[in-house]
# Entry
Amino acid sequence: MKKHLHSKHGILFTLMRVTFFQLLCIGFLSAMSYAHTSPAQELLNRDVTLKVSNVTLSEALDRIESSAQVRFAYSRDLIRLSQPVAVTAQREPLSSVLDKLLIPLKIDYRVVNNQILLSKSKKLSIATPALLDNRLPERVMPLEVAIRGTVTGADNTEPLPGVSVVVKGTSQGTTTDASGNYQLTVPGPSSVLVFSFVGYLSQEVTVGNRQQVNVRLEADVKALNEVVVVGYGTVKKSDLTGSVSSVGSEELTAYPALGTVQALQGRAAGVQIQANNGEPGANFKVRIRGGTSINASSDPIYVVDGFVGGAIPPPEDIESLEVLKDASATAIYGSRGANGVIMITTKRGKSGKPRIDFNTSFSAQNEINRLDLLNAEQFGAYIKEARPNYVSAGANTDWQDEIFRTGGIQNHQLSISGGSDAVNYYLSGALYDQTGIILNSGFKRFSITSNVEVKASNRLRIGLNLFAQRNEKEQAFTQEGSGGLTPGVVASAFKFEPDQPIRDPQTGRFTVARLNDPHDNPYAVATELKNEQLSDRIQGNLFAEYDILEGLKFRTTLGATTNSGRFGYFAPTSLNEGRIVGGRASVNGSKSTQLLNENYLTYSRTIGDIHDFSVMGGYSYQTSSSENWGGTGQSFITDAVSYWNLGGSSVWQSPTSGLTEWQLGSYYGRINYSLLDRYLFTANIRRDGSSNFSRNHKWATFPSGAFAWKMSNEPFMQNFEAISQWKWRVSYGLTGNQAIEPYQTLARFSNVFTIIDGVPVNAVRPTTVANDDLTWETTAQFDVGADISLFNNRINLVLDYYRMVTRDLLFSVQLPQYSGYATQLQNIGSVENKGFELTVNTRNTTGALKWNTDINFSLNRNKVLRLPGGTELQYSAAPGHLVGLGNTHILREGYPVGSFFGWTYEGVYQQGDGFLPGGGFEQAAGGEKFRDTNGDGTLNSNDRTIIGNPNPDFIWGLNNEFSWKGFDLNLFFQGSQGNDILSYTLMELNLLSGINNATTAALNRWTPTNTNTDVPRAFAGRTRRVSTRWIYDGSYVRLKNLAVGYNLPASVTRKLGMTKLRVYASAQNILTLTQYEGYDPEVNYASEGATNSNRNLGLDYGSYPNAKSYTIGLNIGF
Amino acid sequence: MKRFLNKFTLLTLTGLLLLGCADLEERPVGILAPESLFRTSQDVRTAIFGAYGWMATERLYGRQFVTALLLRGDMADIGDRGTPAERQQVNDFNMDDNNNMVNVFWPYWYQVISAANAAIAGAESLNLPENEINPLIAEARFIRAFSYYHLVQVFGDVPYLDRFISDPNLVKDIAKTPAATIYQNIIADLEYGKQWLPDKQPSDVRSRATKGTAASYLASVHLTLADYQKAYNEAKFVIDNKDRFGYGLVDDFQTLFRAPQPANLREHVFAIDFLGLQSGSGGANDDIMPPMTGVRGGDAPRSGWSVAVPSMAVYNTWDSRDYRKEVSMEDSLLIGGKLQPYTVFPNTKRPHIAKYSRYAGNSNAEGRYSDHNYAAMRYAEVLLIAAEALGEVSGANAEAVGYVNQVRARARNWAGRQTNFPEAVAPGMSKEAFINLVLEERRLELAFEYKRWYDIKRRKLGEQVFKGPNSLEPHPNFDPNRDYLMPLPRVELQVNPNLGPQNPGY
# Structure
């Protein structure tokens, strides 16, 4: 092979001569390193001035290289360099020059990564009739006809200069001029003109009797080079064998989003993203094809520019985002792939002049909804029924009014990118500054990204990605986990007594609850409590890629990321919590570091235009270390020092510190084989060893395989004009989940705070038993799908059916508590997720008014297949201060994870009804009536059943984009159907046990004179019970984004010295259709902080509300 | 090709080398591994201390367990009916087998037992001479006995574990042990304790068990089992050796309830030691009894939540000349800076319990995280056990009456001023009257100290005290076939169905 390789080195330019077989490889490999090609258009528009005659093709190409600063790549075997050519051009676009030069020689060209690849024209060599046509002029002397016309883009009717116009089957041709006009003489009316232009679909037109042929070219939305990023490489979209969804940068930046994860909501089939909380800076729950796990995390892993677990950059810095869904795509990430993989590729610099982009937007925000609560008078009437001694405090306060305000977001990003052949750079700074809709809450994110790539030699490329980010979060306290003294701001705004003012008029102090525990009022909590987080992330990711041989590349990466954080909390003496101890402050610090080294070889080869294969193999080693420390002090001289003077507290609490470390070592490999560009095979394998698992199970292997059939490339499909592409895919494989904390396999004793002789002493007790058999969760996934493009890619469909079975579920199994232990992490049972996904992209109209529609639809069914011994497992996921609730959820074979478990509410008892006996159940008219499910005549725990399923029947997103002239309109709906919500908020409010405010539903409570109701009477001794009374349909449809934009015409921007100027106005979340009685169906209470757990799906309790936003913004390019 | 192969080999080797360094063993820093924990007798003590510390938690002596005992009796009722239903149900004999008070204190008792068993296993593994190690084993066995002493009285038959469990699967199918057997095991542990425990612990602290502690609990267990001769013998042993053990009545009754109590308070036979304003994880050292019993709306530091509040009859029937009533109850309090009678208390217009909240010592403004050392057993109770047991065996003789009179004599010391109430008991009354008198004496002397429910249960007084004409706290639904035992947590029966059947009536 080596003898075919000819290279010529210059300082700036390189001419590579490689075999034809390697052309594909170059495309593949260079795409792999750059991830995305630069716009070919820019390159082909470069001005060329040239006048050569009677020189060899080789020489002509050299001249063009130096004139246009481009490089050619071609196979010497196929391109005859010695043939004489002549070409003349005076400041003409490169494309025009190339057309003149190459089309007559039957040479095709296309741009790949700033290189122009030359190949033999397939059209001529393959299409036999063309050859016959070619001879036609020799036999018949046709009438020569002069044809003229204009070529424009179909989307905007702007003239297209440089379009190649060739008479089919001949060497006759020309290109359009700057106004898109052409002129050509053709042999006769039967002549067919072929219009082709890079980035557009070619079009053939029969001349007929016309003298003017105007053509509108369709943009090639599925450009040949469109590649998607997969694990350890890239692949042409058309060659994908697995199930992968791509989301582009425009979708990610359609509206100001808290972060990339939020921006992904509703954008990809099979991806469910749920706000845990509307709090500025809050996390999201991400599920790809449902939750595979019960106890361990079901969050996907994020791979940022190849860095597993790298920091997620802000949306503006992302070039593309790929969601890997089936086992064929994810198994290369082995033990971490079971929940799907989100591959993020950041933006890179492109050769050429420095390009400056500035994006800015301002938003105003308000809470999405409010609850209708009782006013002071209604409240007083209700409370008196439960507690006759009650006397109103006399005020009338709307607590929602007191804590909500108009918030806002400022979002700015400035980037500079550019490069030469040797160096590419992308520098960006982004600022996101959100003022929350609750007093004193906000979030600020500032980040800088620097991506630099250096071509150190012809064979070696080195790149460095640097990312630094600071997050500052000022939290409104919500999501209270247990019965501390301080209630969450939102829950408190709902439940706090409306007959109290903000401050006690006598003492001037903040009022506290009089009926229930003496909690602070919501205004006091919102304004007085300090709850602040600061985190700094610094990440560097270095890669080097070396071409060892043609087709053989070695790539090594070394990534390091460190995250340090500080959390400060201060309850001043103006709050109950602080008052009783003279102020309470704590500061906790943390620092975590991850190192990742990946090394892999990729070898690609094409044999005889039939066999195309690539092999990848490598190893990686990753370590993580997390440390934390903290201190708490009570009783300060003054509230002024906040949490910054713990030393000044007179009561010190035990400090804390901890260290956890893990290591992961892996080997992995992949083979791709393509036969005749029709039959595609992929096999992956990864072997992972993790320190987190027990000594008997440190290592495991995760294989997968896939087959795809490009049916549309079969000869028998060639007659179906309507079908542009039709590919079948099928895959099967194993992936793992190792998302458990380190050291969970080990037995341990824990410290106990003990006093002997009046002083603390060292003391321990056994807390955890060892599990020497703890191992990975393994998910076996089967996927079958099809990628279909119809009518010249006007309609694109992606369909997938999958079935995943996860076994060896990591679950904290309830132990018999008399053993002295509470739970043990074990591998138990199995869970199934199966579903169907559909993505449809259509280009409905393509004229002056362009209308595109994207639909994605995901349906997932989750089911527990097996539990140890068939025994069901109950657990609780509820706010701790709702004492007495007991277990709220159940795992039962045949039912979904997260099923709500409780009694069936049957309305209220009426006078004269027979009361069912049962400890703790009401036996009075107006009392809550429950169903005796098991029919044993008494009410007790045995009457509980599964009463709800938080998993949606399906979720969907619908995006419509319209553009007309410079205007564009975006409408993005997102929805969820058939998911149940268990509302702890409404349970707390409408229990009607006379301890807090209620919604206006309480006005319809049972009284001796209002008996026709299902709202029970006010009664102080009522037990909180999970029952169907608190289960609601959480289906919703939400208008996520409505945006109108205007791109100023090029003629205007050019005058302003800009390449782009777009102004837009948009609105988010302004319309929600739902039956849910709570204030927002899109919330998710994070019980016990475990936001990533599937155990607490569909729970609503006092979450920070989502906001509706009104945004104006500007995108400028220079 | 050769060069390619060389490079490939080199790279692969480098890779394998790097991966060879991949160390997948876990070596946690800062985590205590059981296999390496027990090296000296000091380590055994560390586990014993862990068991003590776990009693001084919110789940046991800081709130849940003792509140359940308090509410179950006839001396304390629910004050604020806005308090969680689970408490109201324990008080009102309306609980189900999912009652969360039970759910939270049940596991803690067994965790205390687990720590004690771990200490015993650790001690036995050291192969130290018996005079060095047996006192530690005895201390752990005392803790185990103390835990089962409570469990068996509250629940009857329960699972009994007397060895350290490193694999819970080994015990996941066990059945309940009959209460009678558990009592025998408790007695065996306490007798071992009486044999091997020291007369005094270092610094004479009362939060660690001694020979006297073991004997006092033996007396209490025998009394519970109505084995009055043995109960008397054990109590008598303690009384006879009171100087050796450092026991006696404190002069002023209030001293017992004025935090901080010294760690060697002479009346304390066994104390649960809380330290003011400190807390550990898992509710350790978190004493919430002052706010649970304190006055809702009262001025700091005496404000509380009015959860467990005596019914009016408790106050009205208690002779106001009794200093112990003054110490035990609060009938007026500063509210808004003014001393207000209970009739205008903001939330619950009843006299409140004062033993915990009045002098919580160094604590937060509600009395939480108090500095109390709570008497789980105090010398006055030993005297009253002796009186009751001897009364049963020999009638109201001078010795038996004398024990009651010691307790009454101290009560006549009204903060240094001698009164003449309660007057001394004269010998010669009928046995039945004397037994009733002792039980009444226990009710008042040990008021709100979590003893009353056990007295009602062992003497089967339920029908009388909850349904009788003189009931302090009527509960017409009291069911003697059901309510002398609480239900085992339902979740335990689900995990291990062999624990069935559930106690009757649940």
